[in-house]
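Final report, results section. Input specification for complex C-07:
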Amino acid sequence: MDDRFFVHREEYPITAGDFSAAGDASARIKYVLRKLGIDSALVRRAAIAAYESEINMVIHSAGGTLTLTVDRDTIRLLARDRGPGIPDIDLAMQEGYSTATEAIRELGFGAGMGLPNMRRCSDRFTIRSSPGGTVIDMEFTIGKESG
Ligand SMILES: Nc1ncnc2c1ncn2[C@@H]1O[C@H](COP(=O)(O)OP(=O)(O)OP(=O)(O)O)[C@@H](O)[C@H]1O
Ligand SMILES: [Mg+2]
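Structure output:
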């Protein structure tokens, strides 16, 4: 597909606490990547990372945006939110660490696996956070899966 030789960019607003819309942005990202002809294993990795970051913004932040940029070589997902931020990133990155409430756990979230999954799924992962919010920058290299 020649489509992806053009830079493709979309930004999705994420609303805090809106569980009815949670997952819409990552579903759209998955659709766009498929349409651009990206390898399905790579689409799956990027979609998982997008979903985890989207859900984290819904649950843990005051809202933000998820931006998808695709160029010839790279998929980039940039998650930016306003909110309390993450006081101890090393701790938050550990598998099983979660501050999710009982009510959130009853919805099926709060296993403490979202951030570790984002790091595992992406080829480059950076996170920075302050009391004003969190920024997660993830990149995925196009073309290494199927050659
Ligand atoms: N965008 C964010 N803003 C503020 N805190 C966050 C954000 N993302 C993650 N955190 C904090 O980091 C912890 C770990 O996040 P992670 O996604 O790994 O697990 P979880 O969201 O609690 O559970 P799971 O993702 O498995 O449903 C969260 O419980 C929360 O305390
Ligand atoms: Mg999470």
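Residues 2-141 form a domain with the Heat Shock Protein 90 fold (CATH 3.30.565.10). The helical segments are 24-35, 40-60, 89-92, 102-106, 114-121. This concludes the modelling results for the funded period.
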